[in-house]
Specification:
This protein has 602 residues and is an alpha/beta fold. It has two domains: 373 residues, no CATH class; 216 residues, no CATH class. It contains 26 helices and ten strands.
C-alpha cells in the first residue's frame, strides 16, 4: 500500500493511535514530535450540539460558507463562489486555531527545517478538523510563495463528510488532492452520517460513543435501525442525484422526491481507502466514484438482518485498529484508476465484498467517463491554442499600425478603415473560442487544474488585454450603455474577461478586482458621460471626482508596470480628451496629464 498512498504502513498505524489518543482529550492537540514524520492529532467531539450548533430545522446540514480570509483558495476562481463546510466543525477548528495556531505553525516550520513530513490526523469527528488544519497550512505555505513542496499530509479514519464539491474542486485545482487520505471501513456509518439532515440523526449521534465497547448492546434496537435506514435513504438520494448528473439522464421519480427531500451539500475530497472485511483495500480518488461507493458498500446482503447490520455499522466505527491490521498486512490493494474499463461482473473478492453490483459498477464507469470527457475536452482546447495565438498576433499587428495620435482603442471605435473591419472579425473569432472555454468551465467539463495552469493564465491575460479594450470600444460605439447600462454593470461585462482576470489575480495572489488594466476604458467612458451631465447633484459630483482620482492612481500604477500600452496616452485618445474637460483643481487631471506628457516626450 505504501506506493499507492505515498506513506508507509507503520506511519498509518501510528497516525491512527495518535488520532484515537487525541479523541480522549477534548480541545487539546496530541503531538508526537520525536518521530519522523511528526504527527499531530486533532480532537473531535461526541456531542451532537458540536455537529449541529444551531437550529437544525432552518439549517438541517449545519452548512456555512468558508471564510475566504483564512482560506482564499477555497472558491471558484471565475465567479468567486466560496466553498461550503460544516459550521460546527469549522467553529471547533477556529477555536483550536485561536488557542494553538502558533503551535501548529511552529511544528510545520520545524518539520520543514528538519526535512520531515508532518501529518495531521483525526478519527471520527476529529477528521474534519485535521482536514481544515491541513488546508489552512497549505494556504499558509502558498502565501509564503516558497517553492519547496509543503511537508503537510492529512490522514483521517472514519471521518464524516463536511466539505462540498467546490471545496474538492479547489483542492484538485491547487494540486493538493494527494495530500489527503481517508480510511473508511465498509460498514462504518459515520462517514455517511452527514448525508442525512440533523433532525433525523442528531439525537442518535449520542449512541455512537457508547459502541466503543464492542460488547455494548443498543438500548433501543428499533431506534438504531431507524437511524441506519434513514442515513442510507438519504445517501441513496444523494448518490442517485449524482449518478443522474453523471449520465445526463432524468429520473422523474427522483425529481419529484427531491422537492420533499433536502440533499446534503457534502461530497468526498481526496483519496479514499476502503477497508474490506476480507482484508483487501480498495483505493479510489475520483470523488463521484467515492460517493457511489459510500452508498453501495453500505447495502446489506440478501438474508442479512437489517437490525444486525445497523448495530454493526456503529461498532465498525471503533474497529479501525483491526481493519488497518488486516488491510496493511494483506498485499491485496485494488486501485480503481481506470474506472471506464471496470467490468460489469467480476470475481475479485475486494469488489464483491464492497457490494459492487452491476448498478454500482455502471455508476463507477460513468464517473470514469466523466473524467475522460474532461481530458478529451482539454485536448480539444489545446488544439485551438495555435489559432488563439495567431489571432492575437493579428491584433498586435493592428495595434502597431494604428493611426497617429489616436491609438488602438479609438482607432477601433472610429471604425473608419478596412483594417478595423478585419480586426472586428478576429475579435469575434476569439470571443467565440473563449466563450466556449468558459462555458466548459462553468459546466465542469474541463479538469480542475486547467484554470491554474501557467500557460493558460498567461494566454488568458494576453487575450484580455488585447481584446477587451476593443470590445468596450464596440460597446460604446453602438451606445449600448443606453439600453444595457454601463459596461461594468453586473451582467454586461462578458464572463470571458471576468474569468481570465480572476485566473491572474489568483495565480499571483493579487486582490480581487485589482487587475482592471484591460477594462479601464469602460470607466473612462462612464466618467466622460457623467462629467458631461450638468444636472448632477453636489454629492454625485464629489463621488465622480473621487472615482476619477482612483482611476488616475490605477493608471499610474499600471503604466509603471507596463500593463497598459503607451498608445492609451496619445493626445487624441478618449482618455486625453476627457482629461482636458476636468476642472483644473482636480488632482486626477494633473496625474493623467503627467502620463500624456511623458508619452509626448518619449
Amino acid at each position: 500500500m505504501d506506493g499507492n498512498l505515498g506513506i508507509q504502513k507503520e506511519v498509518i498505524k501510528d497516525a491512527y493511535f495518535v488520532s484515537r489518543k487525541a479523541g480522549e482529550k477534548p480541545g487539546e492537540l496530541e503531538i508526537t514530535g520525536s518521530s519522523s514524520p511528526v504527527i499531530v492529532g486533532f480532537p473531535g467531539s461526541r456531542s451532537p450540539e458540536d455537529w449541529f450548533p444551531e437550529d437544525s430545522k432552518a439549517n438541517p446540514f449545519g452548512k456555512t460558507k468558508i471564510d475566504l480570509e483564512k482560506f482564499p483558495s477555497l472558491r471558484r476562481i471565475g465567479n468567486g463562489v466560496p466553498a461550503t463546510v460544516n459550521r460546527g466543525f469549522m467553529a471547533r477548528f477556529e477555536r483550536i486555531l485561536q488557542k494553538s495556531g502558533q503551535t501548529i505553525r511552529n511544528e510545520v516550520a520545524k518539520a520543514a527545517d528538519e526535512k520531515k513530513q508532518i501529518i495531521f490526523t483525526g478519527h471520527s469527528s476529529g477528521g474534519p478538523i485535521a482536514i481544515y488544519a491541513t488546508v489552512w497550512s497549505l494556504e499558509e505555505h502558498r502565501k509564503s510563495k516558497k517553492k519547496e513542496t509543503p511537508p503537510v499530509f492529512c490522514l483521517t479514519f472514519g471521518s464524516p463528510l463536511t466539505t462540498d464539491h467546490i471545496f474538492g474542486h479547489a483542492i484538485r485545482r491547487e494540486g493538493w488532492s494527494d495530500n489527503f487520505v481517508h480510511f473508511v471501513t465498509k460498514l462504518d456509518i459515520i462517514p455517511r452520517v452527514l448525508l442525512a439532515p440533523a433532525p433525523s440523526t442528531g439525537e442518535l449521534l449520542k449512541e455512537v460513543a457508547s459502541f466503543i465497547d464492542p460488547d455494548r448492546e443498543p438500548d433501543s434496537i428499533g431506534d438504531l435501525t431507524s437511524f441506519f435506514v434513514n442515513v442510507r435513504k438519504h445517501a441513496s438520494c444523494v448518490a442517485n442525484h449524482a449518478a443522474c448528473a453523471l449520465t445526463g439522464s432524468k429520473n422523474t421519480l427522483f425529481d419529484t422526491m427531491s422537492k420533499f427531500i433536502k440533499l446534503s451539500p457534502y461530497r468526498p475530497c481526496g483519496k479514499y481507502v476502503f477497508c474490506t472485511e476480507t482484508g483487501a483495500s480498495v483505493v479510489l480518488e475520483n470523488p463521484d466514484a467515492v460517493l457511489q461507493l459510500l452508498f453501495y458498500s453500505l447495502q446489506n446482503k440478501p438474508k442479512t438482518e437489517l437490525q444486525k447490520i445497523a448495530v454493526a455499522s456503529l461498532r465498525a466505527h471503533w474497529a479501525y485498529e483491526d481493519a488497518l491490521d488486516k488491510s496493511l498486512a494483506t498485499p491485496i490493494v485494488v486501485c480503481l484508476d481506470n474506472l471506464r474499463e471496470l467490468p460489469l461482473s467480476s470475481d475479485r473478492a475486494a469488489l464483491i465484498d464492497l457490494n459492487l453490483c452491476a448498478s454500482a459498477r455502471l455508476c463507477l464507469r460513468a464517473a470514469g467517463e466523466s473524467e475522460k470527457k474532461k481530458l478529451d475536452n482539454l485536448e480539444k482546447i489545446k488544439a485551438k491554442k495555435d489559432d488563439i495565438e495567431k489571432a492575437l498576433g493579428k491584433l498586435e499587428e493592428y495595434r502597431t499600425a494604428r493611426r497617429d495620435d489616436v491609438g488602438y482603442y479609438d482607432a477601433f471605435k472610429l471604425y473608419e478603415k478596412t483594417e478595423d473591419l478585419k480586426a472586428n472579425v478576429v475579435r469575434l473569432e476569439l470571443a467565440a473560442i473563449w466563450d466556449e472555454i468558459i462555458e466548459m468551465i462553468r459546466q465542469e467539463e474541463l479538469p480542475e487544474k486547467f484554470e491554474a495552469e501557467e500557460t493558460w493564465v498567461k494566454l488568458g491575460t494576453r487575450f484580455r488585454r488585447l481584446v477587451e479594450p476593443i470590445d468596450i470600444a464596440n460597446y460604446y460605439r453602438h451606445s449600448r450603455q443606453d439600453t444595457g447600462g454601463p459596461y461594468m454593470k453586473k451582467g454586461s461585462r462578458p464572463s470571458r474577461y471576468k474569468y481570465t482576470q480572476g485566473w491572474r489575480e489568483h495565480a499571483e495572489q493579487l486582490e480581487n478586482g485589482s487587475c482592471g488594466e484591460s477594462c479601464f476604458w469602460a470607466e473612462v467612458e462612464e466618467l466622460n458621460l457623467a462629467f458631461a451631465d450638468n444636472k448632477l447633484s453636489n454629492e454625485q459630483t464629489a463621488s465622480n471626482k473621487q472615482t476619477a482620482l482612483k482611476l488616475a492612481e490605477k493608471l499610474e500604477d499600471w503604466h509603471g508596470k507596463g500593463e497598459v500600452e503607451e498608445d492609451a496616452f496619445l493626445k487624441e485618445t478618449t482618455l486625453a480628451k476627457w482629461c482636458q474637460t476636468l476642472p483644473n483643481n482636480y488632482e486626477a487631471k494633473y496625474r493623467i496629464q503627467g502620463l500624456i506628457v511623458s508619452q509626448k516626450e518619449s
